[in-house]
Amino acid sequence: MGKYQKLKRAQILAQKEEEQMSDVEALSEESSSDSEDETDKKEERKESKWTNRERVLVFCSRGADFRARHLMNDMKAMMPHAKGESKMDKSAPMNQIAEIALMKNCTKTIYFETRKHKDLYMWLGNISDGPTVKFLVNDVHTMKELKMTGNVLKGSRPVLSFDSTFDKEPHYALIKQVLTQTFSTPNHHPRSQPFIDHVFTFSITPNHRIYFRNFQICDETLQLQEVGPRFVLHVDKIFSGAFEGEVLYENPLYVSPTASRRIMKQQKADAFAQRKQQQDEYKEKKIKIEEAKEECIEDPVGEMYDTNLEIEDKEARQIMKVLDGRVMKRNSKKNTKLAKKNKKAKAAKAN
Are 157 and 192 within 8 A, CB to CB? Predict the structure, then answer.
């Protein structure tokens, strides 16, 4: 009987150990499931906060000058939701930009195109459905060039300020929506900071130009200091698709840089031609005057009043003699007076 009792005790102990091991495994499984649930909940919270998944692709074409490259880098620094890409070849088609943006998981694009190493164009495009706006960029000043006193926190969210004229015309309203979706930083973006310390201002001038300025909000009094960069946008065209499609709007006041340079050259050429014509007219006039001086022109008035002619009338001769005698007397008196003065002066000098 003692042997059977020992076997039963061993079996009971083994069963207890198995039960303890199963309890430990169950607890570990519960703890692991709880941790997984917590991570899932955190990810869900992040996803629920970061609802606006806008990403902007910022890059330029080959042959860009230093000013365009510095402006592109400033745009990347201003927008924490921006991504970069290597330069694009000029010969490549424009619809290739949409494919590059989709590969980079971007929904908006800012593309800087340079022509003739002097003209800068900026394309703002929505990759999904369009539209795409083409601007001519003028008067570019970068952050390092201006040396402004303002300073903002990198990655902070901006306040977008638009002029009231954006709501008056339909094409300006469309441009406002494109600028808002492109330059506004999404809320709870991973690379953004939860601060608002600067303002992006877009204002339209009477000559239909869009001025961009970046100001720092200094303190609670809402005093502003310019940070930079600054540039001027001139609207050229608005396309319906992503860098392709129909032309929705074409600016009638837009003049291309090549046409404006041609006009300036023509004005200079016209001024030079006018000055040359004036010089030729002056030379012709001078030649005519010299020719007139050299010509001998008869003077009938001089013949009528010629004093060397002989007088035939006797009374007239007598009158002429009397007059000549009076003139001779006056001249002799003057001569005598002058001689006396000269003698006195010589005597005074001798003394």
Answer: yes
Alpha-carbon torsion 275, 280, 281, 286, what sign?
Answer: positive
pTM for the structure as a whole? 0.65
The H or E element that residue 170 is part of is: helix 170-183
Beta-carbon contacts of residue 12 (< 8 Å; ≥ 6 apart):
none
Gap between the Cα atoms of 311 and 322, Å rounded: 14
212: Cβ–Cβ under 8 A, 6 or more apart, which residues?
Answer: 200, 201, 202, 229, 230, 231, 232, 233
14 HSE (CA, 13 A, CB side):
6
User: Measured between alpha carbons, how far is 108 from 129 in angstroms, rounded to an integer?
Assistant: 10
Rounded to an integer, what distance in angstroms lies between the CA atom of residue 118 and that of residue 266?
A: 20
* Span of 33-37, 92-96, 314-318, 320-324 with lowest mean pLDDT: 33-37
Q: Which helix (H) or strand (E) holds 204?
A: strand 193-204
pLDDT in tens, 53-68: 889 999 999 988 899 9
- Environment class of 271 (CB within 10 Å of its CB; exposed 0-12, middle 13-18, buried 19+): exposed
